[in-house]
Amino acid sequence: MADTEGIAIAGAGSPGRLERAAWLAWSQVAGVGPVLLQRLGDRFGSLGAAWTAAAADLLTVERFGRRALDGLEAARSRGDILERLAAYEEKNPAFWTPNELAYPTLLREIPDPPPLLHYRGSLEPDELTGGRSLVAIVGTRNPSDYGRRWARRLAMVLAQHGFVIVSGLAKGIDAEAHWGAIAAGGRTVAVLGTGVNILYPLENRDLYRTIIGADDCAAHGLALSEYASGTAPNSRHFPQRNRIIAGLCRATIVIEGGVKSGAIITARLAMEQGREVFALPGTLDNPMAEGCLRLLASGAQPVLGEADLLTALGRLPQLDEVPGTRVHASAVNHADVGASSETDLDPALGGRSPEPPEKSPEKIPEKALEKNSARVAIAAPPIPPVVAVPDRLRPIYDAIAPTETASFEALAIATNWATHDISVALLELELLGAITQLPGMLYRRC
After folding, report:
1. Per the structure, how many domains does the chain have?
2. Within a domain: residue 382?
3. Which end of the chain is more exposed for a tag (fewer CB within 10 A), N or C?
């Protein structure tokens, strides 16, 4: 065992903390990724044991070769892993490792779970153990009006029925899904391709702050990332984060996307992980519908409306809770980690964007991040219609509550308009795509 002499593992730490330190240390070893970490854990029983294993034993692990061994030797030379953990936690106070009970149950089941999962926002334990179902809604950054409407509409309906909406905080469909969940009073999870203190894209600044509960607002969910604080956007990170989106969820819904888009990658990963995939049917003349149409041809379930989707999701079997995995917020470090008292919520600086952005990441004025600056509560913006509703039609449109139906009679009472004028206005709103008529002369917003 000569090659393990001098390996620094302090003996004062608890077994759980030692294993946490080992996960961090192994995650920083060049040539060792999530799949190999799983194999090491299986071979030695824990990553702590693997950290002190002899080279000859390590080389018996499938695909653990000389490059990984050289990386391990270099990592071992950096000193005590408990001291390194303490230093890492100063900048990254909230993260889980797969050996910890708080780590999301479904994510632990994928072939390559992230060794570190950083989080920010408010934690609800039943989201981790399968007590509440997480559903991903993903799609293109450049959706049609049809795609925008259905992304927000489905997110709202699912959130109202207790589902947690997961997406990637990108502009377009992702943003619509997050806002839809928030507007319905539900919760949402944003999986990032940056550190959890990085704002990207900048146009979703208010959305991100609303999710994590910045500026003393109540948080509406969590931000998750496998990358350390300060990690800037990089084109390699975003495809990687897609496996986390799919891995967290019982089902993935694709709204729109090209055949090679990140949304389709997420759907394919979900299929490989044995999860359900749904796709919103689109028209043949919309390039962003091609990915969904191909998914449908490959066996994805079509989204035929809210009721049909809820029925299909309701058929998913309940998860068996593993004894001992019920996690209470008090048992999780930093169960409510927002940005209300922190100054490290920085813009995305440097790195390459996953797609050429319309405008380069800019630095947010320091004044906006000063610790002693005035606190301004951030609320979800009102849900505007995707199409512009003319002012003359506003009384009718506003008389239809965002999440409810309205009868013709109720609209007449609310507006005091003549029957003919109401009929004309309703027809115009339908043609604009702002409302839809239901059986029984009922109307609702799109």
Report:
1. 3
2. no
3. N
Using 50, 70 and 90 to split pLDDT, how confident is the model at 440? confident
Do 160 and 185 sit in the same domain of this protein?
yes
Q: Are residues 330 and 402 in the same domain?
A: no
pLDDT at 319: 63
Q: Would 278 be classed as within a structural domain? A: yes
Task: Give the helix ranges, DSSP H, for 92-137.
Answer: 105-108, 126-129
Q: Percentages helix, strand, coil for the chain, rounded to the nearest 5?
A: 40, 10, 45
Lowest mean pLDDT among 42-56, 372-386, 393-407: 372-386
Listed as own residue / partner, the contacts of 332-337 with beta carbons closer than 8 Å and 24 or more positions apart are: 332/102, 332/123, 332/125, 333/93, 333/94, 334/93, 334/94, 334/119, 335/122, 335/123, 336/121, 336/122, 336/123, 336/213, 336/219, 337/93, 337/94, 337/119, 337/120, 337/121, 337/212
List the one residue out of 178, 185, 138, 130 whose CA is nearest residue 161: 185
Q: What is the pTM of this model?
A: 0.74
Bridge partners of residue 253, in order along the sequence? 137, 278
- Per-residue pLDDT, 369: 30
Half-sphere exposure of 102 (CA within 13 A, CB side): 21
Q: Are 19 and 99 in contact (CB under 8 A)?
A: yes
pLDDT of residue 181: 96
